[in-house]
């Protein structure tokens, strides 16, 4: 039996949960000096929740690219997951009218995505929508059996597309 290692593991690379600092949603500027009102608080995130959080946790994306990916995901979910069908079999109420299946928020999100598409081009929009919007991993986006180089190229294309979104939405970019 080999002797046990004296080195302590710094971090397990296969862990799925990581401790991060996030902005406090209950922070108040009125009580800024108070110790019970911190600006940032500790939180635990699941880094395998999406490819974006995995890339960010490994240092492959910066804060602005993460913000752009998060904004794109919010717009994508507002457009794709918020629609509902009109129920024609529902009994109408006196004085009431049918609810509009497409809301104001969805129309605004669709307009934002419509402006993003020509900026990124077809290939860039496809890549960002698959990874940020639909939650695919880099391995699922490239062809099955592709080389590591293909995944690295996809990651580079994703970073450049997110940089373009950062410029469009006036988010801080790397300099």
Structural summary, described in words:
The chain has 175 residues and is mainly α. Helix content is 46%, strand content 8%. The chain has a two-stranded antiparallel sheet. α2 (63-80) packs across α3, α2 crosses α5 (148-168) and α3 runs antiparallel to α5 (148-168). It is extended and about 80 Å long. The mean pLDDT is 85.
Q: What is the general shape?
A: extended
How many beta-strand runs? 2
Widest sheet, order of strands: 1-2
Radius of gyration: 22 Å
Specify the number of helices: 5
What is the H/E order? EEHHHHH
> Roughly what percent helix?
40-55%
Structural class: mainly alpha
Low-pLDDT regions: none
Largest sheet: 2 strands, antiparallel
Proportion of beta-strand residues: 5-15%
Average pLDDT, to the nearest integer? 85
The CA-CA distance between the termini, in Å, is 52 Å
In short:
The chain has helices spanning 51-57, 63-80, 104-133, 138-141, 148-168, and strands at 17-23, 40-46. It is mainly α.
List keywords for this structure.
5 helices; mainly alpha; single chain; two-stranded antiparallel ribbon; 175 residues; 46% helix
Element layout with pairings:
Blueprint: E1 17-23, E2 40-46, H1 51-57, H2 63-80, H3 104-133, H4 138-141, H5 148-168
Antiparallel strand pairs: 1-2
Helix pairs in contact: 2-3, 2-5, 3-5
């Amino acid at each position: 039996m080999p002797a046990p290692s004296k080195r302590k593991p710094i971090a397990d690379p296969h862990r799925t949960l990581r401790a991060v600092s996030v902005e406090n949603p209950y922070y108040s500027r009125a009580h800024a000096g108070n110790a019970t009102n911190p600006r940032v608080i500790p939180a635990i995130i699941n880094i395998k929740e999406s490819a974006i959080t995995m890339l960010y946790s490994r240092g492959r994306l910066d804060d602005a690219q993460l913000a752009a990916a998060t904004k794109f995901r919010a717009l994508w979910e507002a457009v794709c997951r918020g629609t509902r069908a009109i129920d024609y079999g529902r009994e109408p109420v006196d004085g009431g009218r049918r609810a509009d299946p497409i809301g104001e928020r969805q129309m605004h999100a669709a307009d934002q995505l419509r402006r993003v598409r020509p900026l990124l081009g077809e290939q860039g929009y496809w890549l960002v929508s698959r990874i940020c919007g639909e939650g695919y991993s880099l391995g699922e986006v490239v062809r099955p059996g592709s080389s590591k180089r293909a995944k690295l190229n996809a990651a580079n294309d994703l970073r450049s597309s997110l940089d373009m979104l950062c410029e469009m939405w006036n988010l801080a970019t790397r300099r």
